[in-house]
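Q: What residues go here?
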């Protein structure tokens, strides 16, 4: 039995469904029988495998070898400590990877597809994974089809199913049954999971879900999306590799110098042990100096950022986007619903007789025609609970009808719909064929400028008359008057249809009889005013790109502060007439693009990109997908089509412009925080290297033992760096110009900060060793170690901001940093315990005086860091202001 051979009624019977959809009880039963409508994800790398992965690092392998050799030589405690340090390091790495993975999973679930389904006679949106066989699903342009099914009602449905059939052109679908056995591509009354609705609408009954679908048979497993690396991660990886080689060269040098000294010194030593110790030390230097935690810290900070953004209604679809978003310099945004509330209310109507601006008397033929056109050529409705379903523009029309005492439902009951040609934003029209007062009648509504060109007659004074240029001008003038008041205007027309007509085509939208206009308000979102101002302060230009009328768009743009006095508004048509050169010249003067086509959108994005601006663009329709892909950050509306979402790197769950600006702020903070983690890690490592190299040059003993270095690496690496990644936004985060996307890792003074902080830590450790050495060589080492570990720990406070000092930030404002510092100090205090201090080479004579001296040096280093930071902050602010003033002279 093949469903396509059956009629739609038979299919409903076969799937034990009905035109009312399934009951909740049936759904539950089917779900427990068939499971969820999803393909299983490929097995993730197990925790154990991840752990093994961490042991494959060359550094770890060398350390393991050293530990085994030491075990062999009977140095149990040393080798045990190495094992413990390695295990803890690996465990931390595994925990970090798992955390990042699960937050990415959570994001993926948030952007999971949904389906519009009819259950118990009620339409609702549910997650597509909850569909069962027998469900009635509605489709419209832009939807990905969520399961396989047999079509039961079709309105000009065209579907792209090339991934299954290889056919590149969209297929026209039907609801009639098909005779005989045919291939997938010819099953025109079926739709298949994962294909895409490019046009029209339809209802289908689900016949197969999950692995039973055609696509499920091919791909039993869903590929888990690979985590893409961000530009910063790529740069860091490249830099990390170079740094790694440099450090290895340094370690080889340290080893060589020590061996040379060993052979040239007159002291009698155990050669074998001394060589092993030197080797161990060289390895420990490498471990301590290479910031191996860096890449996982960056991933974690990015994923923490995505969680924060999700709470602010911005779902990032990949990590690189988080970074790019922070450097956005132009936001091209839709108007309706994004800048405005999308709460439309009809405030006025216009009829050529101009007797009234409200519909008060349906006995008047023109008023009756207009209200019927508003209600009949309309797909929206109210649910039993009074919930508005459908396009807000259309909902406003039926709400108006209800409000003036003519329930929309009774008008619809009186004039059954026979066919429709759905609205699309390119045509800017919609039409229906209705049985109106016993005559087949075509109603058309749409953008006035478009509809006027399709009309050659007008309904005036109770009869059809020719549409004279004067009458047309009167309509155009009224359209302008409404538009200047920022009202959204729709025009309505009709014409009688032939008795035999039961379908609608494009040709039917010609030679129409103009009826009248409706005008509705759609107030701007309240917070949009502040957001636009905030974006401006942050050096981000906001551009409105709308399908709406130019005058309406302009009126709103001026009101919300998006458009300045000398800015221009252009229509898609005007844009088409501009050459690339002209557009380039005019680009920065144009704030509003009205009546745009999808091609216009791509052209605008490209033009801004050629001007080296990082461009974000919003979109929701099928045709927006290419522009969303082209933009540096494509932003799909949560209420938009699946295709738009698929092409975007960010989804706005509340469709709100304000959330875009908020997300940019978070993106900037994330980047700032990553830089803080980087500066913390590099400075600390540099400090250790400076002390080691200094001792080597002046001929002191190594300031730290290998074990101490490994221990410091464990204590001071990832935990404080991650805590720094949780830092709140700096107060001036949205008062700076956008970061350039190609900006180097160490730009804007970061290198200077690292050099200063690293040197301060290094010098503190050197002084500490110097003072300690006056007592004994061992005391020197103990003191240098204490200073290094404490200076690195306390540096966490300094690293909280690269411009604000710690007192201004408030010592306790980042509880993660407090936690991380406590963790480091607790681990450090282990080294002072009676039994353990020997392992860490702290002599018994190391008392309070030595500790206070070593700790004092560490604190001193951090105080100096703060002093230098203040100076650096002054320099940076001056520089940033100069750059900003030059770029935005206004
Ligand atoms: P934006 O691009 O900012 O979201 P928009 O919502 O006005 O603006 P579209 O939805 O593409 O953009 O609408 C374009 C034009 O089509 C509108 O200005 C209006 O004239 C007309 N229009 C909008 N909705 C309908 C509809 N449901 N039926 C008929 N015409 C419509």
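A:
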């Amino acid at each position: 039995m093949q469903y396509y051979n059956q009629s739609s009624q038979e299919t409903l019977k076969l799937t034990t469904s009905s035109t009312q959809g399934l009951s909740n009880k049936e759904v539950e039963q089917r779900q427990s029988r068939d499971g969820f409508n999803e393909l299983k994800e490929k097995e993730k790398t197990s925790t154990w495998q991840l752990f093994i992965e961490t042991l494959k690092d060359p550094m770890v392998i060398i350390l393991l070898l050293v530990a085994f050799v030491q075990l062999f030589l009977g140095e149990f405690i040393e080798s045990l400590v190495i094992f413990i340090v390695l295990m803890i390091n690996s465990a931390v790495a595994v925990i970090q990877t798992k955390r990042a993975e699960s937050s990415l999973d959570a994001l993926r679930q948030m952007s999971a597809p949904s389906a519009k389904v009819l259950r118990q006679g009620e339409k609702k949106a549910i997650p597509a994974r909850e569909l069962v066989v027998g469900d009635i699903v509605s489709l419209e342009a832009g939807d990905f089809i969520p399961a396989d099914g047999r079509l039961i009602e079709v309105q000009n449905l065209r579907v792209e199913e090339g991934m299954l059939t290889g056919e590149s052109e969209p297929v026209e679908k039907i609801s009639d049954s098909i005779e005989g056995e045919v291939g997938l591509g010819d099953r025109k009354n079926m739709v298949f999971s994962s294909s895409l609705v490019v046009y029209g609408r339809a209802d289908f009954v689900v016949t197969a879900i999950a692995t039973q679908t055609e696509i499920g048979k091919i791909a039993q497993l869903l590929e888990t999306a690979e985590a893409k690396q961000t530009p910063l991660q790529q740069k860091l990886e490249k830099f990390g590799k170079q740094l790694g080689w440099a450090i290895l060269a340094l370690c080889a040098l340290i080893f060589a110098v020590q061996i040379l000294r060993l052979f040239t010194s007159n002291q009698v030593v155990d050669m074998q042990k001394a060589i092993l110790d030197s080797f161990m030390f060289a390895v420990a230097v490498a471990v301590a100096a290479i910031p191996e935690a860096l890449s996982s810290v960056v991933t974690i900070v990015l994923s923490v950022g995505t969680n924060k953004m999700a709470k602010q209604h911005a779902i990032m679809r990949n990590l690189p986007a988080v970074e790019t978003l922070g450097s956005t310099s132009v936001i091209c945004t839709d108007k309706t619903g994004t800048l405005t509330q999308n709460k439309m209310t009809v405030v006025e109507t216009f009829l050529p007789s101009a007797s009234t601006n409200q519909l008060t008397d349906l006995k008047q033929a023109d008023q009756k025609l207009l209200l019927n056109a508003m209600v009949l050529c309309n797909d929206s409705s109210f649910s039993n609970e009074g919930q508005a379903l459908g396009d807000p523009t259309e909902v406003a029309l039926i709400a108006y009808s209800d409000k003036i005492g003519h329930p929309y439902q009774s008008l619809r009951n009186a004039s059954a719909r026979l066919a429709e040609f759905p609205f699309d934003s390119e045509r800017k029209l919609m039409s229906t064929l209705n049985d109106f007062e016993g005559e087949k009648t075509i109603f058309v509504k749409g953008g006035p400028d478009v509809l006027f060109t399709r009309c050659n007659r007008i309904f005036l004074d109770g009869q059809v008359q020719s549409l004279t240029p004067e009458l047309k001008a009167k309509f155009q003038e009224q359209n302008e008057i409404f538009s200047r008041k920022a009202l959204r205007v729709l025009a309505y027309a009709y014409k009688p249809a032939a008795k035999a007509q039961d379908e609608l085509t494009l040709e039917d939208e010609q030679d129409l009889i103009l009826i009248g206009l409706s005008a509705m308000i759609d107030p701007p979102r309240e917070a949009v005013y502040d957001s636009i101002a905030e974006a401006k302060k942050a050096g981000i230009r906001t551009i409105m790109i709308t399908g709406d009328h130019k005058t309406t768009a302009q009126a709103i743009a001026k009101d919300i502060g998006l458009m300045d006095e000398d800015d221009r508004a252009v229509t898609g048509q005007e844009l088409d007439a501009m050459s690339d050169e002209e557009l380039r010249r005019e680009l920065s003067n144009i704030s509003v693009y009205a009546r745009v086509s999808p091609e216009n959108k791509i052209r605008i994005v490209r033009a801004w990109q050629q001007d080296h601006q990082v461009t974000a663009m919003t979109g929701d329709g099928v045709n927006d997908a290419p522009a969303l892909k082209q933009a540096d950050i494509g932003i799909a509306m949560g209420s938009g089509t699946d295709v738009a979402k698929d092409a975007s790197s960010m989804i706005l769950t509340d469709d709100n412009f304000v959330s875009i600006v908020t997300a940019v702020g978070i993106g900037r903070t994330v980047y700032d925080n990553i830089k803080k983690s980087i500066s913390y890690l590099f400075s600390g490592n540099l400090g250790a290297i400076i002390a080691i190299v200094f001792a080597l040059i002046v001929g002191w003993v190594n300031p730290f033992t290998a074990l101490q270095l490994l221990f410091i690496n464990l204590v001071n690496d990832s935990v404080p760096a991650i805590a720094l990644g949780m830092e709140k936004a700096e107060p001036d985060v949205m008062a700076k110009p956008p970061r350039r996307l190609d900006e180097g890792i160490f730009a804007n003074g970061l290198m200077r900060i690292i050099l200063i902080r690293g040197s301060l830590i290094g010098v503190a450790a050197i002084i500490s060793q110097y003072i300690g050495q006056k007592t004994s060589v061992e005391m020197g080492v103990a003191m240098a170690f204490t200073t290094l570990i404490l200076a690195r720990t306390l540096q966490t406070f300094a690293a909280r901001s690269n411009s604000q000092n710690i007192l201004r930030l408030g010592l306790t404002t980042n509880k993660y940093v407090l936690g991380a510092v406590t963790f480091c100090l607790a681990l450090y205090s282990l080294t002072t315990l009676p039994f353990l201090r020997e392992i860490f080479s702290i002599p018994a004579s190391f008392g309070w005086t030595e500790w206070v001296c070593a700790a004092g040096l560490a604190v001193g280093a951090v105080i100096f860091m703060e002093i230098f930071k203040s100076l650096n902050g002054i320099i940076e602010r001056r520089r940033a202001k100069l750059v900003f003033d030059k770029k935005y002279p206004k």
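A: Context that may help when evaluating the design: The chain has four domains: 3-39+114-219, 51-101+236-307+674-887, 314-340+525-655, 347-512. The first helix runs from residue 8 to 14.
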